[in-house]
Amino acid sequence: MMPSRRPPGTYPDQQVWPPAPYGEPANGATQPLPAVPGTGATSPNPGPRPPSPAFAPPPPPENPAPAEQAPPPRRPRTLLLGVGAVAAFVLAVGAPTADQYLFYKSGQPDDILHVVPAGQEQVFEHLAWKSSIAPMEPVPAGTTPDKQWLKITITRKATDDTGTKLTAKPELELRDKQERAWKVEVTEDNVAIDDGQVGKPYTYIAGAVVPKAVAGEVELHLRPDTTYRSDTPTEKLFEVPTDPAEIEKAKHKDVLVFRR
After folding, report:
1. pLDDT tens-digit map of 214-233
2. pLDDT at 93
3. CA distance readout (Å), 70 to 73, 77, 136, 202
């Protein structure tokens, strides 16, 4: 009996790519052989391996415990932040006023007042001071009826040679019983700069305008400058004092208050 003839143009199923391993017949099947149940046999081409257990992500818990669940939104914290923001805004608005006050207190220490009885002379740091207040005559043009111009005369005398070198002008102002202040301007003086004499009076003439209602009660507040000396060399004028006594003097806390 003659073998059946293969139809023309047909060929057996052969593995083209990848090449068949050595020893496998060229006309071997390209389909994997099914595993026989119960034998443990596997396909010669099992396919890609599953990922290693070491890198496999853990399965999510089906029903996590309450302690493991995500915490709820922290509303108290949000409320606290909101209150903190409002408080910061209020403090920021009030900070400039507080800062200015603290700066004023640190830059202008509390004054030390030296009260001088009416018409009396006060000796302080090598100088003797005296003052008088009277209405200014004639009244400057343009003065309104509710204002009063005052003439202030201040006399100073050196009590020793050091006093003749303390030639700086004092700071002057008028204050009423309510501690309201008005500036006093020196208009002329005859204070000797280089050849002052001990015991000789020198005079400052000054003026100020105040409300007429307090013209009879305002008092002169005189703050002497006891640090500047006319014989100080120019190169030492801007030196910062290091001696504790000189540092205290430089604060200029002493004020002479002349009663009327």
Report:
1. 999 999 999 999 888 888 77
2. 35
3. 9, 17, 86, 88
Own/partner long-range contacts of 247-252 (Cβ < 8 Å, ≥24 apart): 251/109, 252/171, 252/223, 252/224, 252/225, 252/226, 252/227
pLDDT in tens, 78-95: 444 444 444 443 333 333
Q: Which CATH number fits domain 115-258: 2.60.40, 1.10.1470, 2.30.130, 1.10.3470?
A: 2.60.40
CA 82 to chain centre: 23
Total-model pTM: 0.56
**CA-to-CA dists, residue 118 to 69, 81, 204, 253, 255, angstroms:** 86, 62, 18, 22, 16
- Which sequence spans correspond to the domains of the chain? 115-258
What SS3 class is residue 201?
strand
Cα gap 248→253, rounded to integer Å: 8
Q: DSSP assignment of 100-117, as one string?
A: HHHHHHHHSPPPEEEEE-
Mean of all residue pLDDT scores within the chain: 74
Q: Which residues contact 205 (CB under 8 A, 6 or more apart)?
A: 151, 152, 153, 186, 187, 188, 189
